[in-house]
Design a protein that fits this description.
GO terms for molecular function: adenosine deaminase activity; metal ion binding. By secondary structure, the chain is an alpha/beta fold. Bound molecules: N6-methyladenosine-5'-monophosphate (6MZ).
Length: about 280
């Protein structure tokens, strides 16, 4: 009988470079966190069924709504730590050998932004101590555009402080969040400051149609990697500049195959990049 030539894709070593922490929680992880937060309750309501995008096509703003229930469940150091551990373990099971987790430091009723970031760093270290075969994990704090520039200012101060406590852990800054009604210009000085401090930059860009001017401004400002770049090919100039500058584009298919965050638009985007 002929030997099976089927490839074991799971065990192939992989790198995962675009994992938003609160966007990478599998359904079983969300369920566990739900029971930690709401003990003695029935199973979570059906909306905790992962990030499954049930509609054929969702608008960008709908995606951001979906993070609210993850944010509700990762609002204490204990649950945030558990969420981090689960992501790392699930990535390990998926054959990931190098993982960059990105996340927006969030102050909640139960923790400051500094505690938020430190908790994740501690979880990363503990995971490695418990299981040295776990992936190498680095952290990329995010500026959420929708929260404005003052929030990002505050975040950068915290990031630089936490970086001192956990040397080698924080490798860059991500610009993400809903770009609607925000202006890239406002974030430039802070991003430059981060760059001067030795942090790499990954910027979500061209997330919606009709932002050619801003896309070019971002390309001219420069970045080490681009998040999504979904509508980048709308103008030949920006498309060419992207290619000339050889900026790697991160396609957010899903950080974890257990989450179903693959909207049609991402598939379309991948096809464009491949051609
Ligand atoms: C089209 N896709 C996207 N575009 C832009 N930003 C996105 C995103 N998907 C996720 N985020 C950003 O990541 C946060 C959730 O993870 P963290 O709380 O940071 O761990 C979202 O609230 C959003 O700010």
């Amino acid at each position: 009988m002929a030997e099976s030539t089927e490839m074991d894709y799971k065990s192939l070593p992989k790198i995962e470079l675009h994992a938003h922490l609160n966007g990478s929680l599998s359904t079983s992880c969300l369920t566990e966190l739900y029971h930690m937060k709401y003990p003695n309750t029935d199973d979570p309501p059906s909306h905790i069924n992962g990030y499954k995008i049930l509609d054929k096509f969702v608008e960008l703003k709908d995606c951001f709504e979906r993070f609210k229930y993850a944010h509700d469940l990762t609002d204490t150091p204990k649950r945030l730590k558990r969420a981090t551990e689960i992501i790392i373990n699930e990535c390990h099971d998926d054959g990931v050998v190098y993982l960059e987790i990105r996340t927006t430091p969030r102050a909640t009723e139960h923790m400051t932004k500094e505690v938020y970031l430190s908790t994740i760093c501690e979880a990363i270290i503990e995971c490695h101590e418990k299981e040295p075969k776990n992936p190498i994990v680095k952290l990329i704090p995010s500026f959420d555009r929708s929260k404005g520039v003052n929030d990002a200012r505050d975040t950068l101060d915290v990031v630089l402080k936490v970086r001192e406590k956990f040397p080698g852990m924080i490798v860059g800054i991500d610009l993400s969040g809903n770009p609607e009604n925000t202006n890239f210009q406002d974030f430039k000085p802070l991003l430059q400051e981060a760059r001067n401090a030795g942090l790499k930059l990954t910027l979500h860009c061209a997330e919606t149609a009709g932002t050619e001017e801003e896309n070019m401004e971002m390309l001219e400002f420069g970045m080490d990697r681009m998040g999504h770049g979904t509508f980048m090919d709308e103008s030949p100039d920006t498309w060419l500049t992207l290619r000339e500058k050889k900026i790697p584009v991160e396609c957010c298919i899903t950080s974890n195959l257990k989450c179903a965050t693959v909207p049609d638009i991402t598939k379309h985007h991948i096809q464009k990049l491949l051609h």
